[in-house]
């Protein structure tokens, strides 16, 4: 079943229909299959008759009967949910079931336990239960209404009921109040006021509930509409802020998140309070909602309830976050199926976000109606109501729009009908005047989307206005987000409409594709305005010199526009961009730049994060792709924006440093500045520089420690780090330490560096990686060097965890001690990893087939092995152990994590320093690596050495013959 929003997108760009759950929209629910109330009453009477003189047995038997009835009834509700797909009907069935149980319990208590208390108090439902809806795992919120001065027996009767309900395993929230207390508390507490607004009679003295409802309406509701609305909207805004302030989080909170059930509840509360309605359907004759909008409300409510009920049934608790772990199962339960380009779970989540978008539309429409009907509100109130009493004024240069308290509004209702280009112009005028949007204007935009047709899309003026919005120096992301929320962006650019609300089922991308693109644009705007110097010094420096801002902005907006297709989205996106650039009025030169940027938008990120940037072949190959400095500059900025917009915590200074290194090395090559001096000569110069830098050391020490290193070290490690390492090694030697670690934090790059000095060993990196995993450290890079005296000097970079340097240094010290303990044999690696993972639940949400790529063309000296698979604790340790088993010498490693997926790259040689050749050997490497990536390798862990402090009979030592040909200077 398809929402109107989806149908509108279909009209703009025909696409495969999104599946929706099976739904029964009728309110006439047959409850007979849930519980036979008469039979339940007879069972309770029979128990009473049999145990009149044994109250303890009586209560126990009663509990068993009610618990069984509740469990069977809920199971039947679940079966019916799977059959008819209606979430709202499921919630009503469970609510009705709970009503019957409470009523039977009330009758039992007031007849057999406290017979004098019948009709002395009333039991009412509040909260969601008061709306006659109840999710399987939700709290049961009850309000017990008392007459003035209730007796002790009344309290005991209520207490008996509550204890039975609690003993049934139900989560019961309750309050016991008189009418006077309810009224008094409602005046000062908005939460209690909302609860009583939703109150519904269940059983007992009905007159009490009727009296409270009458007095509440007269003494609390009358004249306080604006106050209540302002409080509820402020409460909603704070809730959104805590939940992430976007409806496009890929693991949304179905109840509390933006576009979730609580937003619909807020609309219901406001409607009921202000318009004095009991049902949302009553808003249609009042003109607040159209019939279609009411239908959208019903559909959204039913869909969200279906998702929530399935979540509770599946998890067995009140789970409100739609996490990756359960999304697949919910999609299956709701009847979604995979289609080319999108899996079943991605189609389900796309439908979810479209529904959340509909909820946002309904919120704007209701707010617009409130402003229209409350034009003479009391001055001085805040929020949406505070604007009611203010008159509009003209906007310079515009006859179509007016300003209303800092918001753009329509000068007349038929503005869009007279000239559809005004739909785009509305957002352009808002941008250049710095205005927010009046809810009525956005409501009329939403209702006028059918006016955005091919004629408007091809209109030169409309496209000029759009390009002005896109490349604005003010806040283009804000305006485009408003256009997207109103449905305009997807209609004006049908290709964009196809990725609206599209999620990618992985842990790396935090937002839907459309939200990611707008956030990417927001980062570009920040850099363009020079506000990101602390995060992106190089990008901030380059941006003013970019020759073509328009091309860059278009590329940023469109770089992921072809996601969800069967072919590579970069190639398909370049083809889409070629068509759109002509429409937007870009020149041929600009179009070619946009097309190239989109086609290669992942290249710089992947090279920087997965390749050895000290290997000259890496830089040469990348420069061959880029070919010009202008392309390099624009690709760098696009890459930064893309990574920053993936989600919180994805960007860090380490990634920034990798991109800057790649940029500077490639810039040097493109500018013709790559050194022609031989590798041996450059290594000699570096060794001499190290010797000179140790000027305050003795002549003997200067010679010893400046000649410890081979060419790879001298040519890739900065001089300041060489000096630091020399001091570290000398200190260890003086202390007689065969094994030592040194730590350094780097807050700007968001990494912590751990340097390990150890006797060389073929499994050294495997053991270090395992120790880091046991300590909870995420390795991002490893530099592996062997000294001329047969020791290993390995530098490991791990992701920073703490902001405070002192805290991070303590953590780094713990990691260093763990490495030393494992290398020395004081701790066994299998045991420490097992301790780390024993209580960790293994996620079954993601499936990534193991992939191994072995290449001899990516480096002149090394074979490059790239592995891709699902991440898990200890994986790097296991992979490096396999490489050691295969007698491969790891020269450097790049460890890259994209959410649940890892791409690890190893630069290796055989034991005599040669590349890996021969198909059979490569096939064996591939098979062994795929085996370790595919399953837990307990046997492999058991083979890990318990300690490696020993004479250097090592794999890396076996390469000394080859290395001495490039002997240290």
UniProtKB/TrEMBL annotation:
Bias type Low complexity, positions: 950-960
Database matches in InterPro entries: ACT-like_dom_sf, ACT_dom, HD/PDEase_dom, HD_domain, NT_sf, PII_UdlTrfase/GS_AdlTrfase, Polymerase_NTP_transf_dom, UTase/UR
Record-annotated HD domain positions: 513-635
Cofactors required: Mg(2+)
UniProt entry tagged with the keyword Transferase: yes
Keywords, ordered alphabetically: Hydrolase, Magnesium, Multifunctional enzyme, Nucleotidyltransferase, Repeat, Transferase
Stretches for region Uridylyltransferase: 1-396
Recorded catalytic activity of this chain's protein: [protein-PII]-L-tyrosine + UTP = [protein-PII]-uridylyl-L-tyrosine + diphosphate; [protein-PII]-uridylyl-L-tyrosine + H2O = [protein-PII]-L-tyrosine + UMP + H(+)
Entry remark concerning the domains of this protein: Has four distinct domains: an N-terminal nucleotidyltransferase (NT) domain responsible for UTase activity, a central HD domain that encodes UR activity, and two C-terminal ACT domains that seem to have a role in glutamine sensing.
Protein name according to UniProt: Bifunctional uridylyltransferase/uridylyl-removing enzyme
Organism: Rhizobium favelukesii
Top-level taxonomy: Bacteria, Pseudomonadati, Pseudomonadota, Alphaproteobacteria, Hyphomicrobiales
Gene encoding the protein: glnD
């Amino acid at each position: 079943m398809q929402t109107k929003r989806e149908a509108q997108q279909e009209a703009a760009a025909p696409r495969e229909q999104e599946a929706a759950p099976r739904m029964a929209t009728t309110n006439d629910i047959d409850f007979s299959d849930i519980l036979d109330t008469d039979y339940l009453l007879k069972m309770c009477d029979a128990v009473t008759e049999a145990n009149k003189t044994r109250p303890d047995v009586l209560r126990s038997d009663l509990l068993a009967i009610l618990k069984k009835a509740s469990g069977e009834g809920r199971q039947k509700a679940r079966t019916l949910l799977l059959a008819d797909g209606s979430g709202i009907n499921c919630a009503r069935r469970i609510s009705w079931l709970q009503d019957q149980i409470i009523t039977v319990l009330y009758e039992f208590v007031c007849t057999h336990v406290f017979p004098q208390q019948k009709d002395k108090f009333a039991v009412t439902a509040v909260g969601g239960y008061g709306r006659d809806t109840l999710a399987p795992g939700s709290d049961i919120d009850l309000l017990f209404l008392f007459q003035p001065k209730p007796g002790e027996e009344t309290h005991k009767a209520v207490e008996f009921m509550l204890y039975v309900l609690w003993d049934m395993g139900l989560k019961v929230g309750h309050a016991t109040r008189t009418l006077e207390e309810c009224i008094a508390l409602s005046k000062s507490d908005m939460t209690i006021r909302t609860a009583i607004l939703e109150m519904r009679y269940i059983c007992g003295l009905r007159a009490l509930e009727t009296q409270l409802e009458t007095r509440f309406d007269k003494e609390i509701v009358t004249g306080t509409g604006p106050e209540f609305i302002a409080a509820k909207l402020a409460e909603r805004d704070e809730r959104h802020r805590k939940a992430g302030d976007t409806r496009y989080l890929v693991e949304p909170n179905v109840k509390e998140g933006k576009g979730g059930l609580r937003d619909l509840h807020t609309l219901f509360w406001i409607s009921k309070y202000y318009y004095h309605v009991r049902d949302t359907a009553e808003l249609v004759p009042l003109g607040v909602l159209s019939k279609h909008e009411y239908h959208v409300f019903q559909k959204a409510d039913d869909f969200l309830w279906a998702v929530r009920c399935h979540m509770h049934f599946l998890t067995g608790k009140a789970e409100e976050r739609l996490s990756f772990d359960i999304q697949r199962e919910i999609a299956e339960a709701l009847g979604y199926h995979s289609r080319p380009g999108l899996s079943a779970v991605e189609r389900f989540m796309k439908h979810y976000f479209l529904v959340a978008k509909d909820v946002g539309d309904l919120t704007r429409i209701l707010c617009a109606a409130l402003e229209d009907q409350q034009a003479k509100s009391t001055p001085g109130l805040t929020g949406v109501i505070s604007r009611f009493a203010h008159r509009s004024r003209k906007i310079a240069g515009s006859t179509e729009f007016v300003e209303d308290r800092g918001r753009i509004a329509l000068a007349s209702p038929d503005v869009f009908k007279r000239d559809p280009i005004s739909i785009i112009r509305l957002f352009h005028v808002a941008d250049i005047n710095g205005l927010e949007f009046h809810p009525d204007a956005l409501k009329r935009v939403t209702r006028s989307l059918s006016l955005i047709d091919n004629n408007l899309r091809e209109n030169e003026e409309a496209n000029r206005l759009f390009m002005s919005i896109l490349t604005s120096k003010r806040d283009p992301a804000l305006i485009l987000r408003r256009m997207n929320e109103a449905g305009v962006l997807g209609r004006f650019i049908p290709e964009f409409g196809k990725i609206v609300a599209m999620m990618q089922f992985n842990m790396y991308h935090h937002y839907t594709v459309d939200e990611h693109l707008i956030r990417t644009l927001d980062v570009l705007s920040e850099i363009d305005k020079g506000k990101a110097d602390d995060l992106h010094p190089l990008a901030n420096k380059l941006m003013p010199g970019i020759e073509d801002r328009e091309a860059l902005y278009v590329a940023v907006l469109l770089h992921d526009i072809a996601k969800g297709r069967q072919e590579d989205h970069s190639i398909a996106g370049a083809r889409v961009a070629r068509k759109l650039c002509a429409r937007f009025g870009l020149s041929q030169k600009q179009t070619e730049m946009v097309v190239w940027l989109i086609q290669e938008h992942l290249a710089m990120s992947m090279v920087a994060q997965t390749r050895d940037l000290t290997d000259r072949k890496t830089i040469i190959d990348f420069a061959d792709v880029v070919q010009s400095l202008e392309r390099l500059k624009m690709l760098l900025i696009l890459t930064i924006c893309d990574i920053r917009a993936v989600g919180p915590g994805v960007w860090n200074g380490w990634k920034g440093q990798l991109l800057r290194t790649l940029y500077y090395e490639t810039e040097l090559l493109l500018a013709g500045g790559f050194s022609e001096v031989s590798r041996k000569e450059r290594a000699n110069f570096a060794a001499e520089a190290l010797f000179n830098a140790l000027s305050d050391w003795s002549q003997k020490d200067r010679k010893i420690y400046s000649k410890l290193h081979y060419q790879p070290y001298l040519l890739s490690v900065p001089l300041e780090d060489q000096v630091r390492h020399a001091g570290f090694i000398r200190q260890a030697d003086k202390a007689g330490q065969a094994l030592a670690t040194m730590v350094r934090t780097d807050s700007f790059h968001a990494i912590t560096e751990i340097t390990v000095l150890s006797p060389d060993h073929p499994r050294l990196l495997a053991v270090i990686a395992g120790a880091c995993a046991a300590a909870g450290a995420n390795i991002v890079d490893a530099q592996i060097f062997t000294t001329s005296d047969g020791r290993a000097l390995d530098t490991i970079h791990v992701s920073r965890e703490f902001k405070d340097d002192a805290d991070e240094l303590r953590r780094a010290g713990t990691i260093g001690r763990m490495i030393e303990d494992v290398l020395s044999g004081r701790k066994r690696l299998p045991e420490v990893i097992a301790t780390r993972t024993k209580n960790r639940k293994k996620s079954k949400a993601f499936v990534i087939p193991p992939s191994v790529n072995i290449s001899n063309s990516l480096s002149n000296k090394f074979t490059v092995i790239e592995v891709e698979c699902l991440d898990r604790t200890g994986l790097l340790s296991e992979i490096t152990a396999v490489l050691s088993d295969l007698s491969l010498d790891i020269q450097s490693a790049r460890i890259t994590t994209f959410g649940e997926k890892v791409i690890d790259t190893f630069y290796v040689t055989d034991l005599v320093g040669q590349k890996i050749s021969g198909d059979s050997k490569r096939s064996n490497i591939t098979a062994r690596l795929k085996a370790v990536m595919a399953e837990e390798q307990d046997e492999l862990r058991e083979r890990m050495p318990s300690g490696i402090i020993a004479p250097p009979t090592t794999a890396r030592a076996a390469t000394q013959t080859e290395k001495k040909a490039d002997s240290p200077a």
